Amino acid sequence: MSKLIKDIVIIGGGTAGWLTAGILSSKLKSRVQSGELSITLCESPNIPIVGVGEGTWPTMPETLRSLGISETDFIRECDVSFKQGSKFVGWGNEQSSGSYVHPFDLPEFGLDGFLAHQWNSNLYPHSFAQTFTTQENLGDAGLAPKTISTAEYAKYANYGYHLNATKFSTFLQKHCVKHLNIKHILAEVEDVKLATSGQITSVYLAGKGDLTGDLFIDCTGFKSLLLGESLGVKFKKVDDILFADTALATHVDYTNNQSPIASFTLSTAQRAGWIWDIGLPCRRGVGYVYSSQYTDHQTATQDLHQYIKSSSSNVKNIETREIKFTAGHRELFWKENCVAVGLSAGFLEPLEASAIVLVELSAAMIAEQLPNTHDELPIRAKRFNQKFNYHWSRAIEFLKLHYLVSERSTSFWQDNRAEASVPERLKELMQLWQYDVPKYSDFEQGGELFQAASYQFVLYGSAFRSRPTYQLDPRLDQLIDKQIKDNQAKTAQLLNGLPTNRELINKIMEFGLAKI
Amino acid sequence: MKIETVEIVDINKHRNLKVDVTNYDVAHNRINAAYVTVIELSTLVNEYPVFITKNPRDGQFQLSAIMGFKSGENLFLQNGKWNARFIPTDILRRPFQAALAGEGENTTSRIALDIASELVQTEKGEALFEDDGKPSAYLNRINQNFAQLYAGTQQSKAILQKANELNLIEPVSIDFELKGQSTPGLNGLYSINRKTLGELSGQDLEECHQSGCLQVCYALLSSVIHLDKLVNWVNEQ
User: Could you tell me the CA-to-CA distances from A239 to A222, A327, A363, A394, A421 in Å, in that order?
Assistant: First the structure.
């Protein structure tokens, strides 16, 4: 038997590093507690985290719960508000300020496709999301997904979080070190040492010497110090598909400390990209994601200021931070005994907040596929690479879909619809969806990142309509009608009973949520 | 109830008002749960099932006597009478309510009255004031009710917090067969986990006993039996 995998070394703190540490430790709990496995996280005392990942998926509540984190503590310490989905404003065309919502709730039977089929075959008075979920209405009313009497992590509507990424990292760090047996080292990595086999044997830490390990997890951000720089895994650009390469990020104050907190991430289309707007309890995080091929820094700054002004906020003293990036990912995510998680694995514009969920999925798969011995590494790596190549490709396609169904007319948007920029598989799906609706069977994998329902929300939120060539079995009519009525009743009840996002956050600050 | 009809009790305004205390079958009593406190628990548990619920305003645990299985159903109301020897204080104080002192006003606790209540009249009932302008014995009783509710609320909070710290509270779901049909159960109820309670030992047990929490736990557990009575009342209707 070859050498056992016993020491896991994570290089890099930040959200990716600490979340990975926490997930591994909680999933491998008994082995970590007994000392069979050790998890060490080493981070530089000097490198600041990128810290703009402020939106999570609805997977996060369960992830935090599994780490043994109190939701009340998390909300109080990380400037958290509740996120119920994303709202795309002005993505249709320049003339109207129309919008659509991609909510976190899935319609019941949504994956089978017959709700979407029926909705496309008939004239319904409300949007697809409104007809089959409560969440478009809840979010538009600025409501929370639960009340102060609802237990931690329980809910009336599915939710994720908006949060302060810097505070979140610190919070996770404290929790991981105190409760999850993670060893924490503050040191600069000066060198990565490779064996002749190509494996990483150790990292050399300034003033501390060699830190050896069996499996290294690269959470070093854009730098990709281990996987990219040391192991030479190339970066695969997808900027021919997703054009954005710059983000101008800033913070915007509320008019007063009781201003409403938005329940959706707002994404508003611009001439060369789109602006995110994320409402935390204490401020908004706003940023313009654009392609520098289609606009310049000055115009982009003006557009961003214009947006902030139109949302009735002051643009005085606004400082922006420019972040340059290339859309894409590593050709491999796992090579030899090194796996990249987070920005070191790749980056896509935050249109659907895919960054943090990819960290959650990566960490979970590393735990599931953790090799017993060094001999197994190539097999585990192959499995991981297959899975994450698939995830990243599907994520890229799903983001592209948002651009494809837009009818905006500036060259950025026109070029985004040019056939040469559309991945083959997405082209095929679009052809099929002329007549069919997205269904479970259109996707290969369980645990799909973006499911059929997500495609339905975006397609039918836009002006795109499928034109079914046949009628559904009439026996389904009754079921669908009932579902629509039930959803209406549930919506009315929730609109009546739920507090606003702001009200609930205030109450959580004052009273906390109960564990049960 | 419109807010404008609630007035702070005032000798000048309300000298002639009376409250009919014989009629219980009025709107504000048609509720299926009543707020109760630990002070009155020992008598109430002989007649009512009492559970832990959450205060919708702040999510904190409190006690509630269950009186019906659906919103607005009070099974203790029978032919205009209240079929129990003891009535929760929070019911007895009606149609009065606690008044918050306004800015710059004297902050001693005062009470307010919903003058639109069907119980408020000038003909028959208990007068609020004596002829000489002193508060009547009835009004003094009402004042005592509020004092008791206030003190009881503080005690209940402390005791339920202790129970929560000791992990004694658990959510319960109760399903019934009413008139031969299963009905949607009561939601949002919590009770005491008998097993955890039985396993308390050492300092935890000592604290639980000293704080009065232990007695409250056993009282709550014993009260569950009265659910059967309520089910029977429904089935006899």
Answer: 16, 5, 26, 15, 9
Q: How far apart are CA A162 and CA A356, in angstroms?
A: 12
CB contact under 8 A, A511 and B59: yes
DSSP E strand stretches across B37-193: 50-54, 61-66, 77-78, 81-82, 96-99, 110-114, 120-121, 126-127, 169-178, 181-192
Of residues A153 and B237, the one with the higher pLDDT is A153
- Identify the CA nearest to A137 among candidates A496, A486, A443: A496
Contacts of A150 in chain B (CB under 8 A): 59
Contact A512 B59 (CB under 8 A): yes
The answer to whether B176 faces chain A, any CB pair under 8 Å, is no
What does each C-alpha distance from B221 to A296, A347, B226 come to in angstroms? 71, 56, 11
CA distance B102 to B123: 32
Q: Which residues of A touch B191 (CB under 8 A)?
A: none
Residue A370's pLDDT is 97
Chain A closest-CA separation from residue B31 CA (Å): 18
Mean residue pLDDT of chain A comes to: 94
pLDDT category at B107 given cuts 50, 70, 90 is very low
Burial class for A292, CB neighbours closer than 10 Å (0-12, 13-18, 19+): middle
Name which of B59, B169, B170 is nearest A507 (Cβ-Cβ): B59
| % chain B with pLDDT above 70 | 92
Q: What DSSP state is assigned to residue A107? A: P
Residue B54 contacts A where some CB pair is shorter than 8 Å = yes
Residues B3-30: tens digit of each pLDDT: 568 888 888 888 889 999 888 999 999 9
A418 part of contact set with chain B, CB < 8 Å? no
Q: What is the mean pLDDT of chain B?
A: 89
CA distance A481 to B209: 56
CA distances (Å), origin A498, targets A14, A490, B134: 34, 12, 45
Is pLDDT at A509 greater than 80 in this prediction? yes
Tens digit of pLDDT for each residue in A171-186?
Answer: 999 999 999 999 999 9
Spell out which residues of chain A touch residue B61, defining contact as CB-CB under 8 Å: 514
Q: Do B55 and A513 touch (CB under 8 A)?
A: no
Residues 492-511 of A with CB under 8 A from B: 507, 510-511
- The number of CA neighbours under 13 Å toward the Cβ of B7 is 12
Amino acid at the residue A452: A
Q: Average pLDDT of A16-23?
A: 97
Q: DSSP assignment, residue A207?
A: T
A144/B contact by beta carbon, under 8 A: no
